[in-house]
Amino acid sequence: MGEEKIPQATAKRLPLYYRHLNTLYQQGKQRISSKELSEAVKVDSATIRKDFSYFGELGRKGYGYDIQHLIQFFRNILDQHEVSKVALVGVGNLGTALLHYNFMKNDNTQIEIAFDSNADKVGKEIAGIPIYHIDDLEKEINRTGINLAILTVPAHVSQQVAETLVEAGVQGILNFTPSRLDVPDDVRVHHIDLSIELQSLIYLLKN
């Protein structure tokens, strides 16, 4: 079954499985059952088996899964042998924090370049990442061939910036702004609203 048929919920869980299996492999463990993996990643074993079923026969009954085989498999699926380069647009408080963090726990995703309109920031570097003027966004995205972007701009310019990103060839946007973005169907947007995440967490704690 082709990768494009994988449900989004499954795709979101793959990096979780991959990270955990890597840790186990480094600890010298060679195989794991769906029940053990379930307890470790807090996903029920039926869901894990369903997720894995999209990729054919990965394990066998009574033996479980060969960890090294799974890791190699997920590495190919997730393109973990290649570094995904990311652009960050909006070097405010959150953008600056993300530049300093820069996915240090994951060598396969790297913010390469940042954009802002603030003259005090343009031309400087934060954590080794160069900051360009937002007017140069299309030119620099084209030059670097980056197709992923993190959006941490003020809400009132988010749609306009998203359109420029799409025109420059960006295919995936991680949107930290409260705005819902209107983009073509072939561009993926993941919305991250910290206040909504917190409110849902509070609700779960209370109930």
Automatic annotation (TrEMBL):
Residues 79-180 form the CoA-binding domain. SMART domains: CoA_binding. It is found in: Cytoplasm. Gene3D superfamilies: NAD(P)-binding Rossmann-like Domain (3.40.50.720), Winged helix-like DNA-binding domain superfamily/Winged helix DNA-binding domain (1.10.10.10). It comes from the Bacteria. One of its GO terms (molecular function) is DNA-binding transcription factor activity. Keywords: Cytoplasm, DNA-binding, NAD, Repressor, Transcription, Transcription regulation. Homodimer. Belongs to the transcriptional regulatory Rex family. Modulates transcription in response to changes in cellular NADH/NAD(+) redox state. This is Redox-sensing transcriptional repressor Rex.
